């Protein structure tokens, strides 16, 4: 399957068919999720209505890590397997992951002020998430700094794999250190600690955000393939003009 | 500030960032399609190297 998709033309055809379905399903689930969040889920007994920020904050945090894992896998695809679409996938994933990390930090800060009395605390979870955003921004800057796509992909791959060290730190920071941020309450060995009336809307929002992320990633990969075609044809045109002038 | 402000601000910022991502994807895709069509209309194709 992955080898079949190595052909950009085949990928364009398959992704062109998939994209409207994934985007449409995401929009429907987002509508259902927002309805449940606002009209069917209760306020928290301690946090009151402020708990509704959770339905944005938690999926954004998950997707921040999910897109970093996509980039790390794609980085291996570039350096080890030399898959032709691996660096395309890496480049398309970076701005999406950065945007979800930004949403996570912003909504977390807005949730923290009424609950903890502060927008920011240098605790392990918050700091490692900020480091994640800085790594994303560094990767985006490196893509822009190197013009030749293959050289840029190799440099970004190395940076991505080095930065992957931060992924388990983000995930387990609440277990390894004593943090202001609460520990995991969904993905736990002893099961979720959230009541189903809140867990169901949260999971629906998470699936809706994930599908949105996948749709944006597919779209970004398609655009990147087109950009590379434009680049190749522009170079061909320049070579032809040079030959004519000579 | 009331809790409503923090909740509303969270949803507005998220909506703006998501809208920005979608707009960027649509506009960038259109720009590349137009550039490709422009090059091909001038006869610059992959096979033009041979011709």
From TrEMBL, chain B:
This is Heme exporter protein D. It is found in: Cell inner membrane. The gene is ccmD. The chain crosses the membrane at residues 6-27. Belongs to the CcmD/CycX/HelD family. Signal peptide: none annotated. It holds the Pfam family CcmD. Keywords: Cell inner membrane, Cell membrane, Cytochrome c-type biogenesis, Membrane, Transmembrane, Transmembrane helix, Transport. Required for the export of heme to the periplasm for the biogenesis of c-type cytochromes. It is a single-pass membrane protein. Its main location: membrane.
